[in-house]
Design brief:
Layout (H helix, E strand, L loop, with lengths): L5 E3 L6 E3 L12 E6 L4 E6 L4 E2 L2 H24 L23 E6 L6 E6 L5 E4 L2 E6 L6 E6 L4 E4 L2 E6 L5 E6 L4 E4 L2 E12 L10 E4 L2 E13 L7 E4 L2 E4 L11 E6 L5 E4 L2 E4 L4 E6 L7 E4 L4 E8 L4 E6 L2 E8 L5 E6 L3 E4 L5 E9 L2 E4 L6 E8 L4 E4 L18 E4 L3 E6 L4 E2 L2 E2 L3 E4 L6 E6 L2 E4 L1 E4 L5 E5 L3 E11 L6 E5 L2 E12 L10 E11 L4 E3 L13 E3 L6 E10 L3 E3 L1 H11 L5 E5 L2 E3 L9 H4 L3 E8 L14 E7 L10 E3 L6 E3 L7 E2 L7 E3 L3 E3 L5 E3 L4 E4 L2 E3 L2 E3 L2 E4 L3 E3 L4 E16 L2 E13 L4 E4 L3 E2 L1 H4 L11 E2 L5 E4 L5 E3 L4 H9 L9 E5 L3 E2 L6 E4 ...
Parallel strand pairs: 6-9, 7-10, 8-11, 9-12, 10-13, 11-14, 12-15, 13-15, 14-16, 15-17, 16-18, 17-19, 17-20, 18-21, 19-22, 20-23, 21-24, 22-25, 23-25, 24-26, 25-27, 26-28, 27-29, 28-30, 29-31, 30-32, 31-33, 32-35, 33-36, 34-38, 35-39, 38-41, 39-42, 40-43, 41-43, 42-44, 43-45, 44-46, 45-46, 46-49, ...
Antiparallel strand pairs: 1-2, 3-4, 4-5, 36-37, 47-48, 69-70, 80-83, 82-83, 84-85, 84-100, 85-86, 86-87, 87-88, 88-89, 88-90, 90-92, 91-92, 92-93, 92-94, 94-95, 95-98, 96-97, 98-99, 99-100
Helix pairs in contact: 7-8
Amino acid sequence: MKLRYAQFSQENLRIRFFFPKGIIDMNSTFKVVFNKARGALMVVNEVTSSVQGKGTKTVVAAAVATMLAGVAGSTMAAEWVEAPKDAATSAPADWKLDKNAYHFSTKNTEAPGAFLGASEKDKTFTFDKSLWVNGVEQDTRATGLWAANGSTIKNTGKIYVTGKTSWQNHAMGAADGAKAINAGTIVAKNAYGMFIGTSENGTKTPTIQNDGRIVVEGQGAGFELGGAGVKGIGINNGTITVGEVFDKAEDKWAHGVLINVANQTFTNNGTINATAEGTSAIEVKDDANNTALKFGAKSDVNGLVHLAAGNTTLTFDGTVDTMKIKTENGVTALLDLQNKANLTLEDGLKSTYETVTLDDSRLNASIRGDDNTFKTVTVNEGSIFNITKLNSRVDLKSDADLPKDQLLIARDQSFTYDHAQMHVAGKVFTGNLKVGTLDQKGTVTLKGGEHNFSKLTVGAKESAFNLGEKAVVTVGGLHLYHGEGTAGKVVVNDSTLINTGALTFEPIADKYTAAGTLKLENGTFQTAATDFFKKKEAAAAEAAAQPEYEATGNQAFLAGNGTLNLTSKAFEYSLADLNAAQNLIDNNRSIKVVFTNGTLTLKEGETLDAKSISGLNLAGHTGVSSAETTGTFAVHQTTTIGAIDFNAVKDKEAKGITLDNAAALTLAGNGGDVFKNLGAKVTTVTTGDLVLGTAGNSGNVNVENLAANTLTVVGAFDAENVSFTADSSIKEGALLDVAKLTSEQNKMAVAGTLVADVIDANVTVDESGVLVLGERQLAPTKRALLAATPAAPEFVDQIQKVVTANNAGALVTTNMQGQALFAAAAGDRFDAEKNVGLYVDHTIGVDDTTGKLIVGNPIDDKGNGTVAIAKDAVVVIDTKKFGAEDTVFDAKLYLSGDAPVILSGLTTNTSFILATETGSGDAKPGINLIDNNVFFKGDLNKAENGSLIVSTVFNDKVTDDAELNDVIKTQLDGSHNQKNADVLAAIADTTKKAGLVNKEGTALTDKGVQAVEEYLVAPLTAGALNLAYDATAQVNAVVENRVLEKADGVWADVFYASNKDSERYGDFGYSADITGGTLGVDTTVSCGAKIGAAFTIGQGDADSEGTVHGYSTDADFYGISLYAGRNVADTSLRISGNLSYLMFENDIKGSVAGASADESLDGKAFTAGLRADWTAYEGAFTVAPHAGLRYTFLEMDDYRDLEIGDMNVVEMPFGVKVSGAFEPAAGWTLQPSVDFTVVPQLGDKDVDTVLGSVDVIDNLYNTELGVEAATGNFSFGLSYKYGFGKEDRKNQSLNLNARYMF
């Protein structure tokens, strides 16, 4: 096939291809454009107008690559130019480059020769000219620029290199800790662009880095990491382009990056193009074991990545790319995707990956054998492994042309989804899933989350389908193979498997084994009752008797401990029935039978006492105690019951009851009390091993003291005083809220949440665990004396033994909402994979003799009475909750200087006692104080009594405006409106990524300064004052127009105005819509004067324009007007005047960096005006000049004690009106008019605020078009006014009026 024609357009670099007829019409669907953002050619689909990703390359490559080869080859050839004849052939001394071109041609065959070398450590040498390097002989070794001994060389010019033997000739090289940087252009023709020297040159790690362009022509490589005995580093930030190999012999090749030896690292942040035949983008040779390939967010690799060495790690950090990766037989690679990487692997390469780990990333790949094999895959939460296509059939037919309807995980592949979903073809997979075959092992592990599959099949060869971490999986059928030595398994660990279809156990080769096929590890399996029970065949004579049931045999496949939920139609069963069923399934009662749809109906003589229900799961029912106070519920097998009823206990005076349970007893709770009908004097219940709750359940331990052996909390429970005598635990997702927790020596492990006022037990807070410490309580001996001695109260310390939180992700807090509050304040300073959290908003007390609090991993034990906070901890202190006399840690504090102590909630200057004593002997201990409010800086000092005092001072560098700083400082001094401090704190919050604070957290940005200014004049920002002025002007216009009319009577006027002034207040302005109506009445008195009165009601909506945060005003207004006017003698000069008084009720709304700016303010306006109108010409039309004088007083309530001054506005409007009159029909008069008015401002144009004077109004230029129609005693008018002024001022109003003359 032949490329007939290529047309290039400079504007969008459109390429038009004309192909032989019948092959493809690419021009109709695709074009190639230059994408400025990516700096590369992109294929664009003209139908969808979307830029195609790298996947498009695979669509068009087959049709285009061959044809472009010729173009590419000619383009590459154009890169090489011969050296000019006048090029200097001698190397300049000391890098003094006095020529524009140099030519280094050598026949040296004994040792590598370099044109220019550098060996001065930590010094940079730059080459900015043109250099030609030529290795003339077959064995010649020539290098252009060479760096050694920790020096740096940098090319910003052009280097052309060629030779007889490609690998012996180089443009640049580095060795022994040196660095070579290409920031210009390198053209390597049968040569290498950049390379690493061997250990003969020194063993320190050298670096080669491309920030410019490298072009490879013929045989050669852009980079070579091949220094034997040296760990080299290669970095590509620019472009490496590999052209066509001139010689097509098998031993001829070209590579973008060539790695020859072990332990090399290459990082690509740029572009590598190598798509011609015989080339590769990255080549890892068979001796290059332990190579690390890293691809960044800007990485773009076009061409083959060929891996022939073992243990090659490929890390994709934010990379979005489609790649062609080939591993050789027996060679495995390791993939690591992170930080929103999105990688697509091309098909058909038969590559093998030993491990794949996805963190916040996406991988798109086929798992068919001809494409890829993934040995161990871990898909972490927030990530997606998108298996691009199904790979098997349920009916096992292998015809390649048949569509696939099943996902098969086999060929020793293992997939783990950690709180992530399975995806196929871009969607969450819910189809048929098969794990393993009869001769191939497969493993799928689902941790957490909810999953659904049409059918689940688990094969042999020890294949496994594992559930963990409270996963819930529903399948529409479950099929398991079993056979001696080859059985597959389903393992349900602390999770739930629900089967809604057929349950089948199929033997292999007629060999039968049931060992562990379906194993429960504190898990639940739900399926139909008919899967485990069937009716016995009754004899004819017994046909009328109640049917009996027997086991199906499937119980043999069950193992472990957990719950078997059996579903069926609704039915009733007795306790005897349940015991019989339980014995058929598991006589040892490790697996508990529950009839999900059944109703337990006790037969005569049956009771739910301990003996009758021992070993059963009756979570929805209440057990019955014995008559004794000891041995009242002595179960001998693990048992679950909702609660226990003690009504049968005879001793009503008993103070304690002992259950004497020999096996673990679970009290489900079911949202209520776990002990029913306790005697009035019972204060203590003693149990053996006790479990509180089932997953998702809750309850209340309604006794003063609960004493258990081992206590396990699974649900959410409240209690008073709880003690335990063996190591105990609170499981993940569970909660125990107690007044006091006690144990002499044993430990409580907290993976869920423990809330306690007093902890007199050793407690460890595990990963994801939360410990909430209540407020310190007054010591009992002091409560009675408190009134007499209020100045010296004594408290019970919360921590009386050892509390340890040293597992990453653990949190200790003093607030029930501490997790959210801590996360908001700590921001990205806290990494749950590395750090331990501590949030404090009230005093933490530690007992001097027995208590200690350990947060993080301190180096050593600090002793009793201490709080030890290690460097891996993050501390947040809510400063709003502490005053000058308040203490955060009532203990001796050991605090690592590396642990950030974040002062949260800072809205005003503050001080408080950090600790009563410090373990540091320094007068000013080095503590890493961090304030989340840019307005303050934290300071730490040691008082004379040894306590640590934290205080804050105002940051006087927060803006460059000293006057603004003073205003802010005043508002934050603690004596002003707290709402202002709250909003300013929201603006200054360094944890928010709103662009209001600089990256260093030391000052406001310009945007932040504007946000502060907008808020401090919020009524202006919201347009409230301008809305009042505009509404008053609208009423004035209505009244003035009315007084000029000759008729009198009852009249009404409806008006609408839309005003906008987008830069009224400097960088921002307002817009407003005003509607209202006026109803008036007037009459003409004996002197010829017209007098009248009117009432106005209306509403306005204003919005800020161009502001950082949005503000608005909703206003209702009403008022009265008085007016009068008459002609002077018999002239056409008419003098008129009016008075108006308006009241405004304003609701200002706004959200400033998440803080509310909402407030309601009242305002008022008083206005008085005089006007003179003179008819200068009257004929076919009338010309009437007019002039006036108006005074307006505007007043607004202060906004949150931020004063807004009054305005005294004086205006002198003047203009001219031209009008006409004609009769369009009998009895009708029509009067069109046009009026142009200038409104100069003579009084206040601005208003006083805490920021100084702010402009509110300015001169205005109005044009009004109107028309009035009258017939009989009725008249109607319509007018439109347009006004403009400075700062993009635009006013528009529409008036509709009507009147009736009596």
